[in-house]
Write a structure and sequence with these properties.
Blueprint lengths: L3 E3 L5 E3 H32 L3 H5 L13 H5 L6 H29 L8 H10 L7 H10 L17 H12 L3 H9 L4 H12 L1 H16 L3 H6 L9 H22 L4 H42 L5
Antiparallel strand pairs: 1-2
Length: about 300
């Protein structure tokens, strides 16, 4: 018979339970390390001696610690403008997306809304059907959204999935709260701003995370729509440019077998810059997410209860 032990909550647990929990902790601990190690590896390469990085000598700990790579980023051409563009689109785009999603999600819960069912179905159907990349580009070109900062903002304001999450969450709020406000004379905008919004903070924080991460990591729209304006490149697009520079130099080495000192210096610079910019692009999300996680878990669970 298995020996029973008692934990602090006085629940009897067998030896098998303890062994199972121990193996579970080991498994998820190892899985966590596998997830964290790529970020750690990237970071130690950015603060290590550049020659050691090039020679592949940095694996588990920094070699020749320094922060010169981060300091040198201020001299990288157009990187500052890319950071400004990315931060701007993340803040403005996320804020507008949250406002539109909250308002639209609230309106489609109202039975008195004109053509409510039709509009909601029209919104949902866009999640299943897509015209494709070329029609999308032609549409953006026709609307004058190429080489235009608004191309980062306007298309992302309406996010069907986020609107559905907000709608489902609002439906879980007791209707009596809104009814009592209406009896007291509150109109629809007042009910929305004074009652619905304060109670919807968890789901709004959840979709804000979705929006912020999506805007921060966005790459394709910058690549396709900003071809004539390098100053409008996003940070991820700029990282892609540096990656191509490094790849081209590497191909030159393998093809000719010889490389001048200037080309070698450029190759080293491109590689180090690539690592450092990648780390800079990751750090903000890593810093923000832990503070938003409690809202994320609560919002996504409550917002997914109903279909």
């Amino acid at each position: 018979m298995s020996k029973k032990v008692r934990n602090k909550s006085h629940i009897a647990r067998t030896t098998g339970d303890v062994i199972f929990d121990t193996l579970l902790y080991i498994f998820f601990g190892a899985f966590t390390l596998l997830c964290v190690f790529p970020f750690y590896y990237l970071f130690i390469n950015t603060i290590s001696n550049n020659d050691a990085v090039t020679g592949g000598l940095v694996n588990f700990y920094p070699v020749g610690f320094h922060l010169n790579n981060y300091i040198a980023l201020k001299d990288v051409a157009d990187l500052g403008s890319s950071i400004v563009v990315t931060v701007g689109r993340t803040i403005i785009g996320t804020a507008l997306m949250v406002i539109v999603s909250a308002w639209a999600g609230y309106l489609v819960t109202k039975q008195k809304m004109w053509k409510r069912s039709f509009m909601y179905r029209a919104l949902v159907i866009t999640m299943y059907f897509n015209a494709g990349l070329i029609p999308w580009y032609m549409n953006m070109l026709m609307l004058g959204l190429t080489n235009n900062f608004l191309a980062y903002i306007i298309p992302g304001m309406i996010a069907p999935y986020n609107i559905i999450l907000v709608k489902t969450y609002i439906e879980s709020i007791p209707a009596s709260l809104e009814e009592s406000a209406v009896i007291d004379g509150a109109n629809t905008p007042t009910v929305f701003t004074k009652i619905i919004l304060p109670l919807s903070v968890p789901i709004l924080a959840t979709i804000a995370i979705f929006g912020a991460v999506g805007n921060w990591n966005s790459f394709q729209d910058s690549l396709l729509l900003m071809s004539s304006k390098p100053e409008m490149y996003t940070l991820q697009h700029r990282l892609y440019v540096y990656l191509n520079q490094s790849s081209n130099l590497a191909a030159l080495v393998s093809g000719s077998g010889t490389l001048s000192q200037a080309q070698a210096d450029n190759m080293l610079s491109a590689r180090v810059i690539k690592y450092t910019v990648a780390m800079v692009s990751i750090i903000p999300i890593l810093l923000v997410y832990p503070f938003m996680q409690r809202y994320f878990v609560k919002g996504i669970m409550l917002g997914a209860v109903k279909g």
